Amino acid sequence: MYWRVLRTVALASLTAFAASPAIGQIRADLGPVHIRIATDAPPRAQSEHRPARPHQDSVWIGGYWDRQGDRWAWESGRWEQPRDRHSRWINARYQREGKAWRYEPAHWSDQQLIEGDDYQRWKSEQHPNHGR
Length: 132
Description:
Blueprint: H1 2-19, E1 33-38, E2 59-61, E3 64-68, E4 71-75, E5 78-80, E6 89-90, E7 93-97, E8 100-104, E9 107-108, E10 113-115, H2 117-126
Parallel strand pairs: 1-10
Antiparallel strand pairs: 1-8, 2-5, 3-4, 6-9, 7-8
């Protein structure tokens, strides 16, 4: 009798655990993504090995250069599951603007992309009479 009850509890616990979402899939709202400005160009992309897809719904996010403070830092490629079935991954973008580089960080399509403080400041310095 004891083993029958223990087996039933264990089976029910396992079923509940399997039905709940995995911890790695739970995401908080990351908020807006800020467009930045850099005085130096990002380095060349690094070569990476893509491991096997861990889950059918996983999306490969290739490595990219991210602006952290006043330097570029490499973000390694990884597999992630989309935030929802309509989300798609948007790669980082680097665009020359005069003597600087406009940097749009990589992000999910459902995240808002806005101009960061440093980019707004730089833009107003480049075009002081713009908007007057």
